[in-house]
Amino acid sequence: MVKVVFHWAVETQHLYLGLADAATIPLLLTLIGLFGLVVMPLNNGLSRAIEYQADEYALQSTHMIEPFKSAMTRLANQNLADLEPSPVIEFLFYSHPSMGKRLRHADEFVRRENGGRP
């Protein structure tokens, strides 16, 4: 009797018959989620680099440092943004540089343009 039950359990209890089987949906969703967790920090890092270049271009094109800083500060206040998030949180989840980094970037731009003077 035990042999018959064991045989039934092994032969009939399977995860899926093939990739076209509906039972594979949880497996596929899990794999897609894991892939997203791996790719998301890479994608966000690329996006942060592009946003940094966009900020640099905006500062070089307009030379309007104070309005830039004012806009970033208002945007941070409006969105209740964390000016200095944890580096790990920023690496994993932020698609834009933190507001603190953007404001420091504007200050560094001023120093570069003024030959090292603030």
Structure explained in plain terms:
This protein has 118 residues and is mainly alpha-helical. The protein has helices at residues 2-12, 25-62, 65-78, 87-93, 99-113. Helix 2 (25-62) packs parallel to helix 5 (99-113) and helix 3 runs antiparallel to helix 5 (99-113).
Summarize it:
With 118 residues, the protein is mainly alpha-helical. The chain is 72% helix and 0% strand.
Order of helices and strands: HHHHH
Q: Approximately what portion of the residues adopt beta-strand conformation?
A: under 5%
Alpha-carbon Rg, integer: 26 Å
What form results from the Cα inertia axes? Answer: elongated
Q: Secondary-structure blueprint of this entry?
A:
Layout: H1 2-12, H2 25-62, H3 65-78, H4 87-93, H5 99-113
Helix pairs in contact: 2-5, 3-5
Features:
elongated, 72% helix, 118 residues
